[in-house]
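Let us work through a complete example step by step.
Step 1: write down the sequence.
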Amino acid sequence: MVRTQIQLTEAQARALKELATQRGVSMAELVRESVERILRESEEDEKWRRALALMGRYREGTPDVSTNHDKYLDEEYLK
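Step 2: predict the structure and record it as tokens.
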């Protein structure tokens, strides 16, 4: 692990310490959990941004594929 130093407001430090006591973990553990959550959310947001950027870029030419997808899948599997 890498040791780092952060600055919190007095209210943040007090609330973090109280939460750590309630959960029976260290303040550092809560900070690590929070950082991990932020990184995971950021990664998920990026995946969504990339997926949304692709929407509408490709056209297959079949306008009803969203409603008749089972029919088209059956046709492809039967080939």
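Step 3: interpret the result. The first helix runs from residue 10 to 23.
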